[in-house]
Amino acid sequence: MAWYNSGSWGGLKAEGDIKNILSQLCIAVNEREAASFTGWKTISTMTRSGSTVTVVTSAAHGYTTDDWVKIRGCDQTEYNGDWKITVSDTTTFTFTITGTPTTPTTGTRQVGKPYTLFVYDNDFTTKPKPTASDFSGLWLHSCTVNEKTLTSVTCGNSNVLVTHTAHGLLVSDYIRVEDIAETGYDGRRQVTAKTADTFTYGVPGNPDQVTAVGKYAKELAVSSITRSGSTATATSAGHGFSNGDSVFIDGVTETEYNGTFTIFNVTTDTFDYTVSGTPATPASGALKKCGKWVIPEAVEGQQDAVATATLADHRMETDWRVVISGANQTEYNGHFQITKTGSSTFTYPLPL
């Protein structure tokens, strides 16, 4: 992870002597890092074919593609220096070289990764030793950079945006969601925000985008259910239903009363539906619920999915920008503006 403070030196660009100073500072930092570095690995063979150099280490190198490494100890000095690599396997990587130095190489050859990476352009490109020309036009607020290893990055709830004209829901209302094919959207959910014609609810993790709008129902309390023959009468104060509505019932101990039914004989506070069998009456159950199924106009999944990163004493502030890399789940990698949530945590939005 690399970060920079977007609030400093706003409006200034790196030009003239400033570019040289920035370059020399980056070089000085990394020369110091290399001088004290102790994690050098022994190179078994290093050969060149055309412009591609293939390096084989005596033990697993632990690198990943696009890492910057330093090679030293080659008798053929053209191979010594800083290289951006492509990993072939646990002991092999390649890099591109100019010229036609002698192959194979000889000498007490070693490779290591002793670097701090610096952002040097407005696309957040990084390298250990950017040159003065690399900094041309860079906004100076992008230059305060460091690299740290995150303890963890997790994704909490994602927000699902539902469009339904005059839905009538309130924040904190509970709804039931069904018939969305993608895993993670269905179930009992709570409204987290609303406008007159839209609302959001949270779902765990970062599920796939929805391909069908499904249906939802506002959850209402049922105070009683009685039965006469095959007709059940449910009482739910001010339910707002109409004859012919499709309504769910659940939470009843006598399971014959639970399910989805077409209702009739609707009054302000009661409605009837048909049940099978002869369940006990009145029905029991302390958490009896009902709700009318409706189909919204649109459902957009993964709205404002948020990742939480943990890094002890990170010393960053809200609105700083960071570069996250190295996560196997690539959605977590990229350039993000953060929100500080604690001295050791921050959040950032994930792409849809």
Taking the sheet with the most strands, its summary is: 7 strands, antiparallel
Separation of termini?
21 Å
> What proportion of the residues is helical, as a percent range?
under 10%
Biggest β-sheet: strands ordered side by side in the sheet: 5-4-8-2-3-7-6
Calculate Rg over CA atoms.
31 Å
The count of helical stretches stands at 1
Shape: elongated
Residue stretches low in confidence (pLDDT < 50, at least 5 long) are 1-14, 140-145
Instruction: Assign the structural class, choosing from mainly alpha, mainly beta, alpha/beta, alpha+beta, or little secondary structure.
Output: mainly beta
Share of residues in strands: 35-45%
Give, in order, the helices and strands.
Answer: EHEEEEEEEEEEEEEEEEEEEEEEEEEEEE
Task: Give the overall pLDDT as a whole number.
Answer: 82
Secondary structure: number of strands: 29
What does this structure look like?
The protein contains one helix and 29 strands. It has one helix at residues 17-36; strands at 2-4, 41-49, 52-57, 68-74, 81-84, 86-89, 92-96, 107-112, 118-119, 126-127, 152-155, 157-163, 174-178, 187-194, 198-204, 215-218, 220-221, 224-228, 231-235, 246-250, 259-262, 270-274, 289-292, 298-303, 306-310, 321-324, 334-337, 339-342, 345-349. The chain has a seven-stranded antiparallel beta sheet, with no helix packed on it. Strands 16-13-14-15-12-24 form a six-stranded antiparallel beta sheet, with no helix packed on it. 29% of the residues are buried.
